[in-house]
Amino acid sequence: MEILQIVGIGIVATILSVILRQQKPEFAIQVSIVTGLIIFIFVISKLNYVIEVLNNLAKRIDMDLIYFTTILKVIGVAYIAEFGSQIARDAGEGAIASKIELGGKILIMVLAVPVLTSLLDLIIKIIP
Amino acid sequence: MNIDLIFKIAGIGIVVGILHTVLAKVGKEEYGYIVTLAGVVVVLTMVLTLISRLFDNVKTIFQLY
Question: What is the Cα–Cα distance from A71 to A26, expressed in whole angstroms?
């Protein structure tokens, strides 16, 4: 039962963070960063399996592989941007958090441009 | 999954907090700030390796090159 491990780590880290927040808030933030990192590194090994299965499925239905990798890239960028902005917001820097989110959105838009152009191509092909 | 790092950081934080308080009581506020800064730098170097590992993992899994 991995969920029990994750919840246990979360509770312990929360208690430590609350203890530290009164004396030294900078260390409380470090504790929360490390907790997020440990939980994500633990979960990502499980995610690897799911992504492999999806990859095989995409190969089997003979889909253009560029769409699948684009989706994966968008998910990766979104997760990293979310992680950074959560840390910044946790530390009370809402402005930096919004800037990180803006950067993530723009990079996702750049990644999605090839899909958009192929959609437009398809529409032009359908319209006689 | 090693959660030692959480306890290490919390321990360093508590020790730095105590040192800060003691130094402030003795009347050496400026040393207290130096101790805090050193603690933050030490912890940050430990966290950075973990952050780079996360970024490497995300890059390989989501094929972000």
Answer: 36
- Residue of A30, A69, A72, A90 to mutate for B, most B C-beta atoms under 10 A: A30
ipTM of the complex: 0.81
Q: Which residues lie closer than 8 Å to B60 by C-beta, 6 or more apart?
A: none
- φ, ψ dihedrals at B2, nearest 5°: -110, 120
Question: In this structure, what DSSP letter does residue B13 have?
Answer: H
The set of residues, in sequence order, having a beta carbon less than 8 Å from that of A11 and lying 6+ positions away, is: none
The predicted-structure confidence for B4-39, as pLDDT tens digits, reads as follows 888 988 999 999 999 999 998 988 888 888 999 999
Where do the domains of chain B lie? 4-61
Cβ distance B59 to A76 under 8 Å?
Answer: yes
pLDDT in tens, B33-45: 899 999 999 999 9
Mutate to test the interface with B, among A34, A50, A67, A72 (most CBs of B within 10 A): A34
**N- to C-terminal Cα distance for chain B?**
26
**Strand runs labelled E in A7-108:** none
Pair B35, A50: CB distance under 8 Å: no
